[in-house]
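Board notes (copied after class):
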Amino acid sequence: MADSKISEEIKERLPVEQLIGQYVPLKKAGRIYKGLCPFHGEKTPSFTVSPERGVFKCFGCGKGGDIFDFIIEIEGLTFPEAVKLLGDKAGVEVPEWKPTGQNGSTPSGPNRARLFEVTSFTSRLWNSILTKHPKAEHARTYLAGRGLTPETIATFQIGYAPYGSATGTSLQQAGFSRTELQAVGDPTKFQDRITFPIADLTGKIVGFTGRLLETKDDPRGGSSRGPKYWNTPETSIFVKSRTLYALHLAKQEINKKGFAILAEGQMDVVMLHQHGYINTVASSGTALTIEQLKLIGRFAPAIVFAYDGDSAGIEATKRGLELALQQDLTPYVISIPNGKDPAECLQKDPELWKKAYENRLRGLDWVVEEALKNAPRPLPPETKKALAKELIQWLTFVSDPTEQADWFLRLAAKLETNEQNLRELFRRIKPNAPLAASREQVTSNQPTTDPSLHSLVDTSIAILLTFPETYPVLKTQFSGPAIVSHNPLFTKLIPLIQNIPADSSLEQNIESHLNDDERKEVALQSEGLLVQYGDIELSPSWAITELSLILQRIRTESRDQAKSAISEEIQRAQQLGDVEKIKSLFQELQNLIY
């Protein structure tokens, strides 16, 4: 396993805010950065990143740590794998680490870094074949016929997997073993297909989708050649439910625009990007999942469904709307006329797409319009009853009472009925799990202030550790019995602050007495205590003033608590008639007062 020197060098070269900013949009807030937590759904940012301490902390779900903890959590890696990945990003050489089994043997399976080498090489190979090889002429003709430009093909690294053994031979010559190929889903199974590489958030290739073409060289022909689309199966680096096609290219634009466009297929995404709709993504060989919507929710609060206009696309849109509402995303729907898909519409009639895009509807408006579009007018009683029962279910996804009340009025008007009738129907249906009751609750990003002395002591220590240069000015104020904490870790720090050897500094004394885990935990807890200052620009001069006020308050409150305790003892001594005890206690009280 990599030693601490390598880990520290990686941290120095890879600022925490830059790394996490690749996964989560962050905004500067004073001395820290804030964003929506990638580990749980939330609308109000409770996720903070501290460049000074090199740590992150979410005050909603409680997760926190350094860049290694973040990568382990978000990428699902082991610590050695996280060190290797971040070492590559930082340009730090990390020695090969091979885990051993219970009997001391070394597992034979390839590591993640090696798997990414396979997928990256395969992607470059197929792209080169598409753009240069004579046998890929029909593939180039097909893509040109779909309206793709060479620039778009290069951006998405679209390729062509030829029929035959060429892919397997090239991979073998590149030094990849059969075990490694199987571990990434066996690229040799892609035969005579246009290939679309699928990447993770950081741009590393994790798998492929291949669209079948017709090749005269393939003697099989017909349906025996496999399905129209072939996807890499799930592997250790490709989890379909947590992957969105082109998110690594779209994430910044999604954050900028405030919404993501979700299409059904890769070709739709590619064409939309080519026409300037760069905030477009698609699910990768799977129906839309909660995990994919959470990914989108990291970057924007809204999602626009741009699925095909056929019956299957309409049903998929409805399922997607339910999931989006459950994740507290604001959904919209683009309705493309005549059952066309976005790619076809953009190629044949860009103005038709533009009009549909500009006239997109909020999700529930679209549901109502879809339900009513073929209904007779005026609505017959039996039609009203069926539509009311269908549409009232959607109001279970509206948790805000004001918005829900508005929807009752709007539905009543659309269904040509009385609002009270709908409310009565809503009560009678009694949905099994109303969204408002089941939604994940998120705590405030501002911690509740604890007025106790111990909390004040912990806050003063957090400020001191953030600005250790203030210690010479304040060291006498940190002495005395009033400096007491209930936090075991901060209790350990107090004597290290109060008793610094002459040949040492505050930082050196603490560094020498805490292990790595304790230092990390001190940083996390300190960051949590300083969040109470919000967006105030913290500085050494501010620290001296604030610490002086806090330490003065600690001494005052400690003295007041001591006086109160002595007064209670005096009352008990008087009840017992203990004159000597009373005299002694009055002397203690006098010493506190003067």
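Comment from the instructor: The longest helix spans residues 540-576. The chain has five domains: 4-90, 112-238, 242-365, 375-438, 453-576.
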